[in-house]
Design brief:
Elements lengths: L1 E5 L3 H12 L3 E5 L3 H8 L10 H11 L2 E4 L10 E4 L15 H10 L8 E4 L7 H11 L6 E3 L9 H6 L4 E5 L3 H14 L1 H5 L4 E5 H32 L3 H9 L20 H14 L8 H23 L29
Parallel strand pairs: 1-2, 1-4, 2-3, 4-5, 5-6, 7-8
Amino acid sequence: MRISIIGCGYLGAVYAASMASIGHDVLGLDVDQTKIDELGRGIAPFHEPGFGKVLADALDSGRLRFSTDYADAADYEAHVICVGTPQQIDSAGADLTYVHAAVDSLIPHLSDHHVVLGRSTVPVGTASSLLERLRAAGVRSPLAWNPEFLREGFAVKDTLHPDRIVYGLPEDPAEAQRAREVLDEIYAPMLEVETPLVVGNYATAELVKVSANSFLATKISFINAVAEVCEATGADVSVIAEAIGLDDRIGPKFLRAGIGFGGGCLPKDIRAFMARAGELGVTEALGFLREVDHVNNRRRDHVVNMTRKALGGSFTGKRIAVLGAAFKPDSDDTRQSPA
């Protein structure tokens, strides 16, 4: 399959190199010439274990190249949107500027037999609005949504060996069939080893991603809230986490009390989810996520206060070492990092 990847940041670059590594012919597109030049030379613009080798091998194979010219996409069959959706500067909602720009730049080079796929994390309803955007421009290409579930530090593994694949297909039966044929061909190696496949409509696929991230954020803030009670009572939160994690309905992951979550996904995604719920008139449905966010932010202040207390009530004249600035191990991502 000939695939173009629009957006060569963390998500897009890893996806492009990984797809080339399983035999697809891949074009990585981005407006940042410096980034494209570096990727074309095999230089990873971020730290991700294993990515450098996958990138170098894909380039050496001749199945991967990079460009800033959208006209190059005309020769490719599938076009995958992997641009960022940061939080808006003046609100909690997701900023879709890059998504809209990617689609608008792609439109002049699309043919009816092409398929457009979305992997960016977007508010529910985005895919439907993008389909209208395509149709208004006279483009008949099918659109499907295929959310990503990457963990920084494990991105290559999660791309090549995902724990599930999700398709959000259009309502039109012919378009849905065409989109599924393309997706099935892209993910053939994963489907052959019986990776779970979940198929739904646009809204379902969009909500799967933000629901998963919101659940993980909730689990982290829950154990951190319990930690506050433990500090007031002398209980050991690590033992509590171990005990409740042995319940297979709960599991042990994401039950490590600490300074809270950060990064480029969980904080913005729960806020965008709440904002979208408000736009849809169901604000109260996700009201609990506001407290999840509050608990998370409170943990940062709590650590500062604990440190101040340990230093005798003042930071004045003290030398303090912060070991690690990224939001998690095996990453250089400092976005929303508690550190």
